[in-house]
Amino acid sequence: MDTVMGNNSRFDLEGFFYKALPVAADFCIHILIALAIFFVGRKLIKWMLSFFKRSFAKAGMEEGAADFLLSIIKFALFFVLILLLFEFLGLETGSVIALLGSAGLAVGLALQGSLANFAGGVLILIMKPFVVGDYIIVGDKEGTVISIDIIYTKLQMVDNKTVIMPNGRLADSDIVNVTRQDKRRIDIPVSVDYSENIKEVRAVLDGIIKKQEGVLPEEPVDIVVDALNDSSVDMMIHVWVRREVFWQVKWAMLEEIKETFDEKGITIPYNRLDVRLKNDENSAGEEEN
Description:
The protein is of the alpha+beta class. The chain has 8 helices and 8 strands, in the order H-H-H-H-E-E-E-E-H-E-E-H-E-E-H-H.
């Protein structure tokens, strides 16, 4: 009887190994193939990251923005590789994707403003409408860009105040980049009285312009009548200067115009209020009549 039980146990053990060995062998083969896919995928990801890094360098992208984007790309590629490995091994990935999607949606709703600033920062760093050192004008704010981060951009104004602007607002605003070109045009409006001779005024203004050393002689100079208002003839001066002397030349010209007009007796009109007082006795007489 013991002999029969021993034979049955040996038979069952042999059957177990007979059934389990192919399964184990197939599992080991799948593991080896998965490891091979992982190593090949890692090499491919490394090559792709090197390609993106070279592309970012050729495009002149900021180093901080390039490193940040490379980190995101690396995370995304490894995430896709792991999902492919799970699918190959027969593991369920739908629940993992659904969980990550729900978590991403919740985080996105909670951080809408920050994500908008983040997206704006990425766009600014990639498209480069301005770089550190540029003088820009955004709405009623203007200054020199001293730093560009992922979330905020810092401007140093002419009075040495620092303005921290969200990148989301910058990305959705009209940006005037003053220092992108090496030359700037100065526009100065000048109003004179209707009694003045326009040709003489133009000659005086032309003489003032020729005294300014910062005005570029090779660029055109315009002295034109811009508008005929109710109480003044509005003229406009256009001259070109190097951007680094823009304010110095403009301030000097304004001061010179005022002093020269005073010397020449050229009238600059201004708003006046005429007040007439009526004689009470005359008013009473008029009422009796």
